[in-house]
Amino acid sequence: MASLDTFGAKSQLSVGDASYEIFEVSKVEGHDRLPFSLKILLENLLRTEDGANITADHIRALGSWDPKAEPSVEIQFTPARVLMQDFTGVPCVVDLATMREAVRDLGGDPSKVNPLAPAELVIDHSVIADVFGRPDAFERNVEIEYGRNQERYQFLRWGQTAFNEFKVVPPGTGIVHQVNIEHLARVIMPRDGQAYPDTVVGTDSHTTMVNGLGVLGWGVGGIEAEAAMLGQPVSMLIPKVVGFKLHGELPPGATATDLVLTITEQLRKHGVVGKFVEFYGTGVPSVALANRATIGNMSPEFGSTCAIFPIDQETITYLKLTGRSEAQLALVEAYAKQQGLWHDPSVEASYSEYLELDLSTVVPSIAGPKRPQDRVSLTDAKTAFRASLPDYVKDDGVDESGLESFPASDSPTHTEMRATNPTPVTAPDGTVYHLDHGAVVIASITSCTNTSNPQVMIGAALLAKKAVERGLTAKPWVKTTLAPGSKVVTDYYARAGLTPYLEKLGFHLVGYGCVTCIGNSGPLNDEISTAINQNDLAVVSVLSGNRNFEGRIQPDVKMNYLASPPLVVAYAIAGTMDLDLTREPLGVDPNGNAVYLGDIWPTPQEIQETINGAVNAEMFAKGYVDVFAGDDRWKNLSTPTGNTFAWDTSSTYVRKPPYFEGMAPQPAPVTDIHVARVLAKLGDSVTTDHISPAGSIKADSPAGRYLTDHGIDRKDFNSYGSRRGNHEVMIRGTFANIRLRNQLVPGVEGGFTRNHLTGAQESIYDASQAYQAAGVPLVILAGKEYGSGSSRDWAAKGTALLGVKAVIAESYERIHRSNLIGMGVLPLQYPAGQTADSLGLTGSETFEITGVTALNDGQTPRTVRVKADNVEFDAVVRIDTPGEADYYRHGGILHYVLRKMV
User: 20 to 30 Å CA-CA from 387: which of 62, 90, 145, 534?
Assistant: First the structure.
């Protein structure tokens, strides 16, 4: 639909021989003081003004934005494209396929269910590091991946042929966000004679990596992404924008990882949930594009909606390096300058809040053992590890014989007592070594967060080279893996002659994809796993990723640390977190001389010279010339045909979900919630990793029993992520995280609860089935930051399918709250300053929630009344926009979209 163009913003932009229709933001009063990110939103509204969803008043409201005001004005943002990875993308395509059948059943045209905006899916979440430390690891892992995921991959091949505007990047190519910045992102989108900013919503929270290129985008639930593909705008409030001023330059020895961990710590402390973060200032030009992408990537870790850099010459330089056409480069520069989107360090926009950082103060750092924001200076890493260790070692398992005294010379601050439990392990070759608390059992160069950055990747390889030349090796108990985000990385390693040194330390390529960072670490060697579990050892992983939540990385590993790729290599050599890398030697050379980290740390000059000789534009152009074609395995997959999918009722990977069964053309009125029981009472910082099924499937879990009952061998269980297209598996894995602590069953970890109908302790899935059979609605009680972490749609889908009708929390992370509404679950919040405990709620009560029916009158009540036995309070209704209210009235966002189609 053409814009109404109330402001006369439509004009032409000539670039070379081409001419594009554009909408000039300068036509709106107030545009000149707007932050970069809000100018992009302003253009979006000008171009999509239809007089109904997007009106002239919305445009004026954005132009007259008050930086200090609390967000209250709803706007409708229409992203230029949608980006997906396969874990979250498969259920999106499953839902679209199911919607086609539902539209047909309601008398509509199923072909209307079709992406209206470009939708691109990168298969990157399915490879697991089963094989490692050997030259054929990559080929073996890809072979295993195809064997496990053939049904899913055939389904995605069908989707690419059945839906217009839907493309798939096949397995073994790269990680979605790295492929996005290196190839898919347009920065400025030329389409249908228009030019406009490339904006994107993605089904992975780290979609924000593209913010480093000046592309506005963020993670949404798969539910919202599906609606965006179907032409529905994203409902949002005009946000607060935090201006983050950078000045100075990074000192030698400090990496992009150190910088982003510093920024993550600073922004988490400041509080940026639900806000945009925008970088500006004289320090911006000195921040390399790859470093900007690393910072943008970790926006979810500090909680902001996005973390965006403006467009400048560094953007153009990177686009040229990564093989974009000269015509595209010219368009990006001309458009950005015409629209006031080109960064001028001397100009400061208006911001809601202000922060700043002197880049020269950044020091080498790690983060852990369980949260990305818990930054620790490398100089303090050993001391911090020892301080955390008591949280992971049972008190009753440590007596005086299990404590060891360490003199002051071993610790820069004081004499410490540390739990120790040296456990002998016999390797397959007969070698005996000892594992103890703090042993590094996984060292992984992984994740697009850092593998997209040649500075840290070349730095890691040069450190490996120097280590090998000094005769150092990785410890035998360390599982060493290299899982970069694109083939370009291994290409420039080969060109620089650095691959043999990484492999000498065990860092063989295991796959191109999200491996360790999402829990696809694969098993540890049997003798190591046995020693850890039989002796309850608190062992460690070190990875160059963005997430280190409890239970995420590997089931045997309790403590997880984020670090730069060079430090990952260093910790593989050290083999323990109980070592001060800045003061103590990593090892000794063949002559008996101590080798320190400083002896093998590459200089900035060495790194840059290697990059100059090994990284070029032809490498990127060659790597992406036929990126959607895939290898012979992909091409030879048998592909179903037809507008609707032929479901295989025996499939344990892809099944038709029940969302639209019995759906009427008009929604039924919403109702109050009566005689509800609590399924789980949870504490603070319960993440979507705790809620959503992720990682390996245990044989004795409800999901494991389901697969066994369907004839699947334990070795073929695969992961929850790979089975996201099967709702039966996913329901059974919701709230099944091994580290979940449900206060209804004190002292028990994992997916268990108290069934109030019988008083028995049961799995959460089994209890929910009993409640649903008895017609009892369910409630979740939670603390602060409920649903933080990845934008997992199944955290909301699983919650809804378990029969949960409402969640009452102290506060929510943005995406999960929105996703709950998208699945018809009511998000409520305790009164300010109140908690479940302060109100005296134990979780054993019967709940009545009244006042919800006010939504039937077209209004969203500010509060509803909650009565839990003798406790009564007014809960805040966290349906924040009129659009969200429409979704809730219809029973979910997909139901709303489907009814509009029909």
Answer: 534
DSSP 622-676: HHHTTTTT--HHHHTS----SSS----TT-SS----STTTT--SSPPPP--EEEE
Residue 73 lies in a domain: no
Contact 417, 527 (CB under 8 A): no
For 16-37, letters b (16+ CB in 10 Å) and e give eeeebebbbbebbebbeebbbb
Determine the average pLDDT of the residues in 607-629: 94
Task: Provide mean pLDDT across the span 282-296.
Answer: 96
Containing H/E element for 419?
Answer: strand 416-419
> Does residue 491 sit in the same domain as residue 508?
yes
Q: What is the mean pLDDT of residues 46-73?
A: 94
Better-predicted residue by pLDDT, 528 or 203: 528
Contact predicate 122/84, CB 8 Å = yes
What pTM was computed for the model? 0.85
What number is the average pLDDT over the span 817-840?
A: 95
Rg, C-alpha atoms of the chain: 27
Say yes or no: 216 and 228 in one domain. Answer: yes
Please indicate, yes or no, if residue 869 is contained in any of the structural domains: yes
State mean pLDDT over 561-567: 97
Distance CA 189, CA 202 (A): 17
For 143, counting Cβ atoms within 10 Å of its Cβ (0-12 exposed, 13-18 middle, 19+ buried), the class is middle
Angle between helices 565-574 and 454-469 (to 10 degrees): 30
DSSP string, 711-746: T--GGG--BTGGGTT-HHHHHHHTT--TT---TTST
DSSP code at position 311:
B
In this predicted structure, the answer to whether residue 776 has a pLDDT above a threshold of 70 is yes
Q: Tokens 């000539």 correspond to what residue? A: 14
- Parent domain of 262: 81-361
Calculate the dihedral angle through the C-alpha atoms of 876, 881, 885, 887, rounding to the nearest 10 degrees: -130
CATH assignment of the domain containing 795: 3.20.19.10
Residue range 255-276: mean pLDDT, rounded? 95
- Whether residues 323 and 415 fall in one domain: no
Query: What number is the average pLDDT over the span 451-465?
Result: 97
Identify the CA nearest to 59 among candidates 71, 72, 37, 41.
41
Q: Helix, strand or coil for residue 306?
A: strand
Opening angle at CA 217, ends 812 and 81, nearest 5: 120
User: For residue range 619-666, what is the model confidence (pLDDT) as tens digits?
Assistant: 999 999 999 988 899 999 988 888 889 898 899 999 999 999 989 999
CB 367 within 8 A of CB 561: yes
Do 865 and 803 share a structural domain?
Answer: yes
Give 264's contacts (C-beta < 8 A, 6+ positions apart): 298, 301, 302, 367, 372, 373, 375
**pLDDT of amino acid 760:** 97
Sheet with 166-169: strands ordered across: 166-169, 119-122, 81-85, 199-202, 216-219
**Which residue's structure tokens are 């009244």?**
850
Q: 372 with 441, same domain?
A: yes
Q: Are residues 328 and 458 in the same domain?
A: no
E-only strand ranges, 178-257: 188-191, 194-197, 199-202, 216-219, 234-237, 241-247
Q: State the DSSP string of 789-825.
A: SS--HHHHHHHHHTTEEEEEES-B-HHHHHHHHHTT-
* Buried residues in 45-73 as b, exposed as e (16+ CB within 10 A): bbbbbeeebbbbebbbbbbebebeeebeb
Contacts of the segment 587-594: beta carbons below 8 A, 24+ positions apart: 587/472, 587/473, 589/470, 589/471, 589/472, 590/471
Quick check: is 505 in a domain?
A: yes
The verdict on 138 and 210 lying in the same domain is: yes
pLDDT in tens, 890-899: 999 889 988 9
